[in-house]
Amino acid sequence: MGRQALSSIALLLPLLTATANAASEAPRPRGVGPDFAKFYKDTASFVCINNPEIKLDISRINDDYCDCPDGSDEPGTAACSHISPLSPKQPSRFESSKINESQALPGFYCKNKGHIASYVPFTNVNDGVCDYELCCDGSDEWEGVGGTKCEDRCAKIGKEWKKQDEARQKSLSNANKRRKELVAEAERLKKEVEDRIQTLQTQIKAQEVKVEALTKTLAEVERSEKGKVVRSAGKGGKLGVLTSLAKDKVKELTESLRTVKEQRDASKSRIGELEAILTKFKEEYNPNFNDEGVKRAVKAWEDYAASRPAEEDNTARDRDVEDLLNLDSESAIKWDEFEADEESDVELLYKFEEYLPESLRTWVDEKLRALRITLIENGILADAHTDGPESKAVTDARDQLSSAQRELDNDRSELIKHQDDLIKDFGPDSIFRALKGSCVSQDSGEYTYEHCFLDKTTQKSKKGGGHTGMGNFARIEKIVVDDVLPANGEGLGSGERYALKYENGQHCWNGPNRSTMVVLACAEKDEIWKITEEEKCVYRMEVGTPAVCGVKEGQQTVPPTHNEL
Ligand code: MAN
């Protein structure tokens, strides 16, 4: 089917309904369609349709001489074919008489019995060519110029057309079904976003309250921590250092004491042994042997034994020493307690509250803290916390606040994202919401092209290599096109179309960033029909999709016309 034929379908279509009435009406002059019959009712005279001031005798109709400036006196000949034809877009002459320099009639009317009635351009009347596509009954060649005979092919053509039309109707109904599904899916997705927005708004309110409370808590903890007297830097402060030194020293002394005690015990036992030997020696020596050396030794032993101090009872002292050496004993110093105690040195030294009854102690403690805070806040006492590390209580409070704040920030940015999404243009019935991210691809020339709805377009060389970005989704546009041809060669006519614009793709060497205009037309399923590179790195894709079936400018859903599919 050629381009001309395609555009002529528009002329043919309005007549679908008219044909039924045609038969019942009175005979009209040759070439007059039923819509214009009323102008030709008078059997005596004729008034030019757009020029009522010109009245002609009835014999002047179809006399092969052009009398009316609008050609209305020659509906069945080519005599007025030099007058500009009636554009399908212009209002009918009989509806508006403002434009009178063009034809009043849309063309020569072919009844096409058995098929669909149609208008043929006046230039085609009696031109010696059978215009079967528009005039299947051959009535446009009624004069038989040069022996031209156009048989009536309407039965055959009509049958074929009916078959095709049935297939088209089936396809159309599938497309409509699919479109409905897409609309439902788009609504579901939109609802999902709206629900999420509601959840987030509630969540944010609660989170704001939480953050506020945690901010207060942090301030209170910081304030209360200020009230605590702080140790100087390093674990344990001065007393801590002293404690540590003392611990080491005590350990050292304990070890020495243990060694000395062991040595003493060993010496004591040896002295005992020696004294026993000498005692035995004194008892057992024979004084009758006049051995001067032995006598001197016995005398010395006797002197030693006489001057030896009486044996003291050291049991208690030894027990004390044993106790000192036993680290697990009751009296041993519990160094761990000193080291683990987080209270400040001063508090440790001056915990006089400890001497007070519980209720009074708490009261005194609070008063002291409050006093300390007041002194710090009035600059009388230095805030010892400023240099030192933060206390665990403050860190914990700060961590809790940061994590709540983080959650709040995340929820807020997610909310903004969804709110933006809701005001974004997703086309008629928000239908592209349902198609967003779904992709179709098609081989063309040396590339495979891909179109991902509302996302991007790419090309990939069949020889290998990566994808080249041909643009990222920018916006939905409405453009006027001459024709959009699907791959199967069936025309979709011209007119206003939805188009998806993709911009800022990969930069083109010596050219712009790649961009693609995806022109959409109604089809049963999503498919790329045609890809052209209109200028260097400026691409155009013609894509079929059920999403635009029956959608006309300024409207949401309307039933699809025969122009598409
Ligand atoms: C690649 C493809 C072509 C494009 C040239 C420009 O080969 O993207 O479509 O025309 O680069 O250099």
UniProtKB/TrEMBL annotation:
* InterPro entries from the UniProt entry: Gtb1-like, Man6P_isomerase_rcpt-bd_dom_sf, MRH_dom, PRKCSH, PRKCSH_N
Which PROSITE patterns does this chain map to? MRH
Coiled coil ranges: 172-224, 394-421
What does the UniProt keyword field contain? Coiled coil, Disulfide bond, Endoplasmic reticulum, Signal
Q: Residue ranges of the MRH domain?
A: 437-551
The positions making up the signal sequence are 1-22
Q: Which domain of life is it from?
A: Eukaryota
Classification via Gene3D superfamilies: Mannose-6-phosphate receptor binding domain (2.70.130.10)
One Pfam family of this chain: PRKCSH-like
Record GO cellular component, one term: glucosidase II complex
GO process terms (BP): N-glycan processing
Q: What is this protein called?
A: Glucosidase 2 subunit beta
Organism from which the protein derives: Bimuria novae-zelandiae CBS 107.79
